[in-house]
Design goal:
Largest sheet: 18 strands, mixed
Distance between the termini: 111 Å
Low-confidence stretches: 125-141, 279-285, 323-329, 331-342
Helix content: 10-25%
Oligomer: single chain
Shape: elongated
Mean pLDDT: 79
Radius of gyration: 28 Å
Length: 342
């Protein structure tokens, strides 16, 4: 049983601990029993206003209890703040647990206030040499001499406001139940759902190509009212039939799959423009039953969309057939009326 003590005072005694800039108080209570070959352990670590610097992250005001055994960790309610250089602190509350360290089963329930994902993912800025190296290294999963650990995970995350260089949004919600998590993602199976409220997508190459159709600027920006959908994952292949982006400019529906180990898409993007936004012949031959111009794009092998000419031709052909049918019906009606009037 270790009574609460100031971790900052202890850390100051070691040069190795100095870079962590630790502060706050902790206490620890543990019980060890059983044999030397099969020890049984349980402990309770209490954090009181703990702070520390871990790699590029600054942790502040950590409060909560951590329960430990020889094969599990539980965090029933951990609160605090996390930040990084140039990023505002994000308040969080986390409930989490890990079972079976050899084949971990992880549960997570996390709630964040305003969170800048750039502190975890970077801002997407890298040198051409580094980008080339990453592209080469990511071309195919590398075989490992040892069998990788397979992780199970389930949980949910709520973020009141999420920001990143590529998008921002309100009320981000995600939940998942996954098995077979490995570095290569080849054995990944499970389900995931993502929902994001009102926000903006920035600098997306695919949207730059769609800009002339969406009537947006060429920067690839798009204001949206909702993004969301479900993904079903089988052996690293994530498929969806209902993922969509809703916006005043257009509604974009995605159907198909993404092979996660290679980040290789095989998707159809159906872009529905507002009713009456496209006139003339193009509007006549691309309008759907609701009168909305509808265009289909394909993304196969890379993330650059291309117009699905087959879908456009089919849609135009159906419209021509319909108009020809209407014309024949009208002319036939006139002919019948002329015959019976004689």
């Amino acid at each position: 049983n270790i009574a609460p003590f100031d971790i900052g005072s202890l850390a100051s005694l070691s040069k190795l601990a100095a870079p962590y800039n630790a502060s706050g108080k902790i206490s620890f209570d543990a019980n060890i029993r059983g044999s030397a070959k099969q020890p049984k352990f349980n402990g309770l670590l209490v954090l009181n206003n703990l702070g520390a610097k871990v790699q590029t992250f600054n942790l502040e005001a950590l409060n909560g209890k951590i329960s430990l055994t020889e094969n599990s960790v539980d965090l029933p309610a951990l609160t605090g703040k996390i930040s990084a250089a140039g990023k505002s602190p994000a308040e969080f509350k986390i409930t989490a647990g890990v079972r079976n360290f050899q084949n971990p089963d992880i549960s997570l329930d996390a709630d964040f206030g305003s969170l800048d994902l750039g502190m975890f993912m970077g801002d997407g800025k890298s040198s051409p040499a580094k980008a080339s190296k990453e592209k080469t290294e990511g071309a195919a999963p590398q075989a490992s001499a040892t069998k990788p650990m397979e992780i199970k995970a389930q949980g949910k995350v709520h973020i009141a406001k999420v920001t990143y260089t590529k998008f921002d949004g309100q009320k981000f919600e995600a939940n998942w139940k996954l098995t077979g998590i490995t570095p290569t993602l080849e054995k990944l199976n499970g389900q995931m759902e993502v929902q994001i409220g009102q926000g903006k997508i920035n600098n997306i190459p695919a949207l730059q190509i769609l800009a002339p159709f969406l009537k947006t600027d060429s920067s690839g920006g798009l204001m949206y009212s909702r993004i969301g959908g479900h993904w079903n994952i089988i052996n690293g292949n994530a498929s969806t039939s209902d993922f969509q982006i809703n916006s005043p400019t257009a509604d974009i529906f995605a159907k198909g799959s993404v092979y996660l180990p290679k980040s290789s898409p095989d998707l159809s993007l159906i872009v529905k423009l507002p009713k009456g936004s496209v006139g003339g012949t193009l509007g006549q031959y691309t309008n759907d039953a609701e009168g909305r111009s509808t265009l289909t794009f394909k993304m196969k092998g890379d993330w650059k969309p291309s117009l699905d000419s087959a879908a456009v031709t089919k849609q135009a052909t159906e419209e021509i057939k319909k108009k020809a049918g209407d014309l024949l019906q009208k002319e036939g009606q006139k002919l019948l009326e002329g015959i019976f009037k004689r």
